[in-house]
């Protein structure tokens, strides 16, 4: 895969960094340009955990998710990566039945919850050990790997694809919700997510509500802190935490896990997930150059990251 012609990656969230690392560690000269440092991106405030991604195109998404799962399990063996394996529950207020996404079967200890394992108000669910990702640490890990492989990361916004292809003949667009403006894609919309971060009072297992609406219950422990969620508000560009939304998150999570009642609040965060009807991972010929678009992952950027990065790297070098 090695080449002497540099590749420009736009964006430094989990998608951009994973793509850039894949290219750089294969011997490709890579530069990242971004208008936000990794720690300032939506990726940095994600929960985050691996799980099935019910997105389109379904057949490709299954492959991307499976590939990412195996990479994250490998990374969990590295104490510095920010990835760890944790047990927990995925539950719903309706009967989930027995039809599971194929990717869920990758979890070796997946089983249905017994009735006494479900919180009040939940009627079905599953237990499994899954990868959890402490995103600030994980993004630092990816950044260090990228630089160690010779990559260059510049805090330098890209105003247009014309500018990008003038700088490099091969470009990977990993701008997330920023693609709404950069490429004029009206199908990209912000899905506003808010989290509350608390000091960990002794929580060791995660909990995720499945199939909820704009407000749901979720918490992911990451050692000394727990990320509580959450919200998914469509078409909301605000990145200012809402006081009422934060209080509601705390109430919902404490209802499921009483240990969280009264936990010390360390901060509240907001990110804009890049909602889209389908993930866009494809080649576009533009201005004499090649642009690979890799965006539109909705709330599943982490779960799709390594699979999409591998395909984007292949497309940019062969497409």
TrEMBL record:
<feature type="binding site">
    <location>
        <position position="219"/>
    </location>
    <ligand>
        <name>D-dopa</name>
    </ligand>
</feature>
<feature type="binding site">
    <location>
        <position position="175"/>
    </location>
    <ligand>
        <name>FAD</name>
    </ligand>
</feature>
<dbReference type="GO" id="GO:0019478">
    <property type="term" value="P:D-amino acid catabolic process"/>
</dbReference>
<dbReference type="Pfam" id="PF01266">
    <property type="entry name" value="DAO"/>
</dbReference>
<dbReference type="GO" id="GO:0005737">
    <property type="term" value="C:cytoplasm"/>
</dbReference>
<comment type="similarity">
    <text>Belongs to the DAMOX/DASOX family.</text>
</comment>
<keyword id="KW-0274">FAD</keyword>
<keyword id="KW-0560">Oxidoreductase</keyword>
<feature type="domain" description="FAD dependent oxidoreductase">
    <location>
        <begin position="7"/>
        <end position="315"/>
    </location>
</feature>
<dbReference type="InterPro" id="IPR006181">
    <property type="entry name" value="D-amino_acid_oxidase_CS"/>
</dbReference>
<dbReference type="InterPro" id="IPR006076">
    <property type="entry name" value="FAD-dep_OxRdtase"/>
</dbReference>
<dbReference type="GO" id="GO:0071949">
    <property type="term" value="F:FAD binding"/>
</dbReference>
<feature type="binding site">
    <location>
        <position position="299"/>
    </location>
    <ligand>
        <name>D-dopa</name>
    </ligand>
</feature>
<protein>
    <recommendedName>
        <fullName>D-amino-acid oxidase</fullName>
        <ecNumber>1.4.3.3</ecNumber>
    </recommendedName>
</protein>
<keyword id="KW-0285">Flavoprotein</keyword>
<feature type="binding site">
    <location>
        <position position="158"/>
    </location>
    <ligand>
        <name>FAD</name>
    </ligand>
</feature>
<feature type="binding site">
    <location>
        <position position="273"/>
    </location>
    <ligand>
        <name>D-dopa</name>
    </ligand>
</feature>
<dbReference type="InterPro" id="IPR023209">
    <property type="entry name" value="DAO"/>
</dbReference>
<feature type="binding site">
    <location>
        <begin position="42"/>
        <end position="43"/>
    </location>
    <ligand>
        <name>FAD</name>
    </ligand>
</feature>
<dbReference type="GO" id="GO:0003884">
    <property type="term" value="F:D-amino-acid oxidase activity"/>
</dbReference>
């Amino acid at each position: 895969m090695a080449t002497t012609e540099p590749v420009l990656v736009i964006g430094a969230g989990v998608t951009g960094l994973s793509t850039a690392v894949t290219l750089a560690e294969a011997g490709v000269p890579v530069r990242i340009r971004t208008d936000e440092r990794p720690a300032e991106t939506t990726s940095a405030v994600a929960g985050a955990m691996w799980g099935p991604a019910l997105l389109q195109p379904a057949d490709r998404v299954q492959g991307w998710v499976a590939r990412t799962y195996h990479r994250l399990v490998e990374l969990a063996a590295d104490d510095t990566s920010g990835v760890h394996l944790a047990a927990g529950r995925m539950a719903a207020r309706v009967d989930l039945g027995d039809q599971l996404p194929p990717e869920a079967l990758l979890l070796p200890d997946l089983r249905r919850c017994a009735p006494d394992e479900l919180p009040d108000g939940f009627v079905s669910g599953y237990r499994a050990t899954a990868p959890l990702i402490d995103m600030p640490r994980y993004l630092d890990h990816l950044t260090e790997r990228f630089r160690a492989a010779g990559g260059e990361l510049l805090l330098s916004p890209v105003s247009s694809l014309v500018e990008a292809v003038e700088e490099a003949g091969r470009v990977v667009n990993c701008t997330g919700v920023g693609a709404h403006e950069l490429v004029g894609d009206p199908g990209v919309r912000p899905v506003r997510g808010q989290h509350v971060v608390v000091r960990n009072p002794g929580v060791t297992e995660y909990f995720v509500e499945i199939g909820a609406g704009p407000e749901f219950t979720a918490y992911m422990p990451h050692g000394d802190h727990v990320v509580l969620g959450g919200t998914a508000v469509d078409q909301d560009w605000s990145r200012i935490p809402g006081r009422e939304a934060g209080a509601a998150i705390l109430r919902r999570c404490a209802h499921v896990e009483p240990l969280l009642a009264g936990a010390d609040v360390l901060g509240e965060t907001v990110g804009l997930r890049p909602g889209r009807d389908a993930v866009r991972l494809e080649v576009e010929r533009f201005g004499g150059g090649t642009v690979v678009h890799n965006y539109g992952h909705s709330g599943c950027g982490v779960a799709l990251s390594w699979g999409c990065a591998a395909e984007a790297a292949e497309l940019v070098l062969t497409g």
